[in-house]
């Protein structure tokens, strides 16, 4: 049988953090430490193999005469990365269970939980299949990645304090710009789907598990090598292409260039896995009664995100692969003189890259629309319009990518079409505003910290969206393209949208995930400094861009120094606000550990109907969902779900015509 | 148009809220629009030095005037809501259970759709009337001024005032050089244009992707290797303008800029003939080894030319081609 209504039954991969511990000592069981050993051995082996194949020598079959020294051998570096990832995963024990199954062994309950031991911290450092553990792993990981990339941003603003005096060389500056851009754009794609999506989606749709726990765990454990490989570009000479890594330049660049190409491709695989898991979980693992018209908005947002991840990220993997083979084994996909085309790279990159920016927007829409009803104590205004907005953004985002190439000369006849599709996407985006504003109508707004972040989201995204209309228009874009205007625009949508929503999610759901309250006073300091610092940083950059400062320059016109200095100082304030958050996070969850009540926000969300943190299998029995999650103030509304339905009720629920009938075992 | 979207925000229940928000927003919106159009508008970048720049400015101004009321309205609504509908101490009741309002939803959707379609039509029309509004249009531009010169033969025919002036912009790490095919194809690092003349920029690159951004001219066209990217502008005023590279092209991208001049037609002719004479010996070698074309392949340099160019000009080439990082024509 597919739906399990009896308590205590374990699913393979359902997560058994309380399973029996393996007999071996902790250091002999696979975990992060063995993964590191595997990665080091893997890299050494791959690098050796690459040199053996490609560098002429007494024992080598090499014919690649143009490779002079082993250190500059891109082929060896890339093979090193490949085997590094392989060694990392082997060391982590990713392949242990599949190999056992292939050898005909059954997995014991403990092995299904992958030797997690009895809960405890250790499971967070192992290949754990419990979606709640993966969620927390993602949360910590994403914070580390975000802060690393944020430090690079601080370095950028330090260099731009003066138009002529330099803190960094032009090479170092571009390395920093590239590291900041790639790290933010590749790792922040999972900043909401990773922690909150993996943790909360099963809880929100009334499922005991996710569809593919192994893929889900794998998606997280790929982000760590992606992060480290990306950073390895610095000692290898850095890369000087920004996050777009446009092809003739990236083919020309030094060995450090292999790092972002490989890391971004690896992260692309992680995105496909993470997205596919959420997609199938939402479609197939909803509890009885969780109709499409009752799905929480957060889940709608992640559904759109998952579709984009699953369909767009493979294009990225392909593009990165082509760029790597151009750099290593002398293919010429992007080399004009050899029959390739630089347009091909731009096309492939943005065919992924534009859906990606909606991968970065949709989860934010989901979070704010999820939180608004809770803090306005009202039903969500126009639920169907909100869902339609998410779907519309998802679909349209595949048809706008060439607006990044308005001035490139590729397919100029198509510019009116891409101008139209780009402007059309502001219609479903406008739905989000309609829903938000409608929900505020005659509300009882509670200005909690998460609500403050939600309200700030609307301001930021309003500015980001409106400036998006400016750049969608070809004549206006002729001046704005490639300038700081564009840079300010997408920071407003991504930082002002995604990251503000992420912060709202942190303050809102950490009591659920950890049972612990973040300090609200520090939270308010964090919010106000971040909101003011953010706007004070990026608002002047619209003017800087319109006044003629191109992106990624380390020298600029002297008359723009005042504005740039203002921006830099504001950026440091913004950085400081993030520091407050990190301090608050560590202080509250490690030092103070103030217990929070089970449902501090008095939310109707299904995830809040179980204890905090939720038990191992989320729900003792699969709940039967009785009404939508936003029925605040509705007099005779039934509770959101029946958490211990009588045994017969499921049969009745499944026999109804409205429900997805699942096959019986 | 944006305002009509908002009329139904009056909503059910107490209509005075909606009317108040709307009144505040419309007053502020009109004030904002007047300020944007009459006070800030004339100073908006990139100015009116060419017809393309004027078109860019007009588009930015129009977008600003369209957007301001929307921003004002949304912000007014949010501020009003936060002030009037905030949670009062001791009130633990939930809010009114409003699930939607068909009239408001329909008007919002219709309103935004009309605005968006209007913008798309406007943007397309502006491309049409301003010959692509200064944006790079690729090798076969469809938005052309009369007399556009799209073949090598047309481009090499000698220029006389009133004709379209062809300037080939060659991007290379890390500078732009300019080749004037109508004047014997001499190549220089100076960009000089005659006023009142339609200028056709043929932008190409020898190595990586650059972007030719002549800020005050309102021209931006990517320089792609192996591609002739055409953009148009017709200078209306004399003066100096800035050229910057707007696409990251390597280490010295940030230092890749120079200044150009728009001068009178007679001054331009004087300058061009002086350059033709001064650069004659170099141009002869250049035209033999690198005859004027819409694109160049720096990896396929004629072998018998290499020695001469190296010896006489010091042109060594970056990335496997023509130039060292010094001045390519005056080493």
Tell me what you see in this structure.
The complex is a heterodimer of chains A (665) and B (331). Chain A is 60% helix and 1% strand. The longest helix of chain A has 32 residues, at 297-328. A two-stranded antiparallel sheet of chain A has the order 1-2. By secondary structure, chain A is mainly alpha-helical. Chain A folds into 2 domains: 18-126, no CATH class; 129-592, Cytochrome c oxidase-like, subunit I domain (Cytochrome C Oxidase, Chain A), CATH 1.20.210. Chain B folds into 2 domains: 2-85 and 102-129, no CATH class; 152-313, Immunoglobulin-like (Sandwich). Chain B is 40% helix and 17% strand. Chain B has a 5-stranded mixed beta sheet with strand order 3-2-1-5-8. In chain B, strands 4-10-9-6-7 form a 5-stranded mixed beta sheet, with helices on one face. At the A-B interface, α6, α9, α14, α15 and α16 of A face α3, α4, β7 and β9 of B.
Number of helices of chain A: 22
Task: Please give the alpha-carbon distance between the first and last residues of chain A.
Answer: 4 Å
- Assign the structural class of chain B, choosing from mainly alpha, mainly beta, alpha/beta, alpha+beta, or little secondary structure: alpha+beta
Oligomer: heterodimer
CATH class bucket of the largest domain in chain B? Mainly Beta
What is the CA-based Rg of chain B, rounded? 27 Å
What structural class results from the helix and strand content of chain A? Answer: mainly alpha
Please work out how many helical segments of chain B DSSP would assign. Answer: 8
Instruction: Estimate the helix proportion of chain B, in percent.
Output: 40-55%
Q: What Rg of chain A is obtained from the alpha carbons, in whole angstroms? A: 25 Å
Mean of residue pLDDT of chain B?
A: 84
Shape category of chain B:
elongated
Task: Present the secondary structure layout.
The complex is a heterodimer of chains A (665) and B (331).
Chain A: H1 32-54, H2 74-92, H3 96-102, H4 109-112, H5 131-159, H6 170-187, H7 193-205, H8 213-232, H9 247-252, H10 258-284, H11 297-328, H12 342-359, H13 362-376, H14 383-396, H15 415-424, H16 426-440, H17 449-472, H18 474-480, H19 484-514, H20 520-546, H21 561-592, E1 624-625, E2 641-642, H22 649-655
Chain B: H1 2-6, H2 15-40, H3 51-84, H4 102-129, H5 152-156, E1 165-172, E2 175-180, E3 186-188, E4 191-194, E5 199-205, E6 210-214, E7 219-223, E8 229-233, E9 239-245, E10 257-263, H6 265-278, H7 280-289, H8 303-313
Parallel strand pairs in B: 1-5, 4-10
Antiparallel strand pairs in B: 1-2, 2-3, 5-8, 6-7, 6-9, 9-10
């Amino acid at each position: 049988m597919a739906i399990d209504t009896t308590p205590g039954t374990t699913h393979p991969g359902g997560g058994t953090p309380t399973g029996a511990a393996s007999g071996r000592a902790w250091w002999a069981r696979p975990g992060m430490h063995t993964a590191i050993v595997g990665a080091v051995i893997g890299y050494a082996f791959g690098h050796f193999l690459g040199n053996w194949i490609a560098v002429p020598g007494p024992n080598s079959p090499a014919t690649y005469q143009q490779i002079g020294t082993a250190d500059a051998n891109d082929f060896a570096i890339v093979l090193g990365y490949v085997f590094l990832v392989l060694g990392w995963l082997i060391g982590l024990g990713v392949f242990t269970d599949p190999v056992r199954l292939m050898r005909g062994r059954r997995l014991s309950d403990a092995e299904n939980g992958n030797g997690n031991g009895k809960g405890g911290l250790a499971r967070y450092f192992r290949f754990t299949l419990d979606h709640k553990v993966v969620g927390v792993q993602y949360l910590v990981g994403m914070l580390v990645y975000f802060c690393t990339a944020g430090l690079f941003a601080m370095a950028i603003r330090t260099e731009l304090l003066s138009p002529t005096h330099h803190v960094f060389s032009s090479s170092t500056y571009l390395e920093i710009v590239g590291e900041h851009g790639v790290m933010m754009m590749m790792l922040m794609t999972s900043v909401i789907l990773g922690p909150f999506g993996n943790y909360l989606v099963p809880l929100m749709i009334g499922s005991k598990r996710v569809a593919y726990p192994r893929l889900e765990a794998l998606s997280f454990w790929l982000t760590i090598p992606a992060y480290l490989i990306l950073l390895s570009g610095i000692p290898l000479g850095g890369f000087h292409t920004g996050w777009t890594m446009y092809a003739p330049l990236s083919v020309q660049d030094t060995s450090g260039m292999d790092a972002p190409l490989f890391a971004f491709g690896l992260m692309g695989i992680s995105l496909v896995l993470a997205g596919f898991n959420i997609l199938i979980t939402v479609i197939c693992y909803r509890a009885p009664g969780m109709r499409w018209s009752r799905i929480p908005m957060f889940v709608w947002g992640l559904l759109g995100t998952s579709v984009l991840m699953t369909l767009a990220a493979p294009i990225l993997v392909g593009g990165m692969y082509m760029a790597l083979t151009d750099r290593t084994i002398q293919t010429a996909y992007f080399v004009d003189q050899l029959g390739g085309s630089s347009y091909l790279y731009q096309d492939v990159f943005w065919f992924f890259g534009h859906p990606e920016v909606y991968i970065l927007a949709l989860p934010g829409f989901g979070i704010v629309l999820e939180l608004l009803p809770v803090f306005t104590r009202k039903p969500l205004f126009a639920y169907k319009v909100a869902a339609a907005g998410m779907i519309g953004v998802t679909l349209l985002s595949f048809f706008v990518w060439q607006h990044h190439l308005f001035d490139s000369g590729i397919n100029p006849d198509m510019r009116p079409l891409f101008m139209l599709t780009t402007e059309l996407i502001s219609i479903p985006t406008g739905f989000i505003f309609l829903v938000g504003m409608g929900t505020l109508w005659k509300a009882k707004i509670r200005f909690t910290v998460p609500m403050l972040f939600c309200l700030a989201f609307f301001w930021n995204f309003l500015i980001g969206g409106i400036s998006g209309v400016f750049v969608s228009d070809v004549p206006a874009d002729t001046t704005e393209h490639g300038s700081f205007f564009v840079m300010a625009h997408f920071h407003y949508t991504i930082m002002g949208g995604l990251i503000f929503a992420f912060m709202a999610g942190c303050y809102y759901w950490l009591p659920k995930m950890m049972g612990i309250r973040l300090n609200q006073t520090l939270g308010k300091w964090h919010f106000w400094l971040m909101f003011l610092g953010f706007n004070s940083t990026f608002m002047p950059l619209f003017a800087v861009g319109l006044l003629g400062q191109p992106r990624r320059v380390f020298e600029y016109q002297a008359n723009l120094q005042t504005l740039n200095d203002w921006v830099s100082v504001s950026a440091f304030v913004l950085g400081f606000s993030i520091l407050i958050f990190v301090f608050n996070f560590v202080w509250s969850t490690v030092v103070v550990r103030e217990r929070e009540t089970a449902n501090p926000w008095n939310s109707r969300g299904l995830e809040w109907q179980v204890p905090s943190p939720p038990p191992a299998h989320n729900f003792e029995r699969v709940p039967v969902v009785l009404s939508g999650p936003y029925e605040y103030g509705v007099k005779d509304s039934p509770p959101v779900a029946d958490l211990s339905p009588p045994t017969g009720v499921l049969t009745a629920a499944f026999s109804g015509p409205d429900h997805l009938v699942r096959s019986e075992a | 148009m944006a305002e009509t979207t908002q009329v139904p925000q009056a909503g059910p229940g107490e209509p005075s809220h909606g009317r108040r928000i709307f009144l505040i927003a419309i007053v502020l919106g009109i004030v904002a629009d007047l300020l944007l159009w009459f006070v800030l508008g004339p100073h908006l970048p990139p100015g009116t030095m060419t017809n393309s720049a004027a078109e860019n400015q007009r588009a930015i101004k129009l977008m600003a005037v369209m957007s301001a009321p929307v921003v004002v309205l949304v912000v007014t609504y949010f501020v009003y809501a936060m002030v009037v509908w905030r949670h009062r101490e001791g009130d633990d009741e939930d809010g009114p259970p409003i699930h939607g309002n068909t009239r408001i939803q329909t008007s919002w959707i219709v309103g935004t759709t009309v605005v968006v379609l209007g913008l798309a039509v406007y943007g397309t029309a502006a491309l049409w009337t301003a010959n692509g509004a200064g944006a790079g249009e690729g090798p076969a531009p469809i938005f052309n001024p009369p007399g556009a010169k799209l073949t090598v033969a047309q481009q090499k025919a000698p220029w006389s005032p009133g004709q379209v002036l062809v300037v080939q912009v060659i991007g290379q790490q890390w500078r732009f050089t300019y080749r004037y095919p109508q004047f014997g194809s001499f190549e220089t690092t100076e960009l000089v244009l005659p006023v009142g003349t339609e200028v056709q920029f043929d932008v190409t690159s020898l190595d990586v992707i650059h972007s030719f951004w002549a800020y005050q001219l309102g021209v931006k066209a990517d320089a792609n290797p192996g591609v002739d990217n055409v953009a148009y502008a017709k200078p209306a005023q004399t003066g100096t303008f800035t050229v910057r590279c707007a696409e990251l092209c390597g280490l010295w991208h940030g230092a890749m800029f120079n200044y150009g001049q728009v001068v009178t037609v007679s001054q331009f002719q004087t300058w061009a003939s002086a350059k033709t004479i001064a650069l004659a010996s170099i141009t002869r070698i250049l035209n033999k080894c690198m005859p004027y074309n819409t694109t160049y392949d720096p990896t396929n340099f004629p072998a018998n030319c290499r020695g001469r160019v190296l010896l006489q000009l010091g042109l060594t080439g970056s990335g496997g081609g023509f130039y060292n990082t010094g001045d390519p024509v005056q080493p």
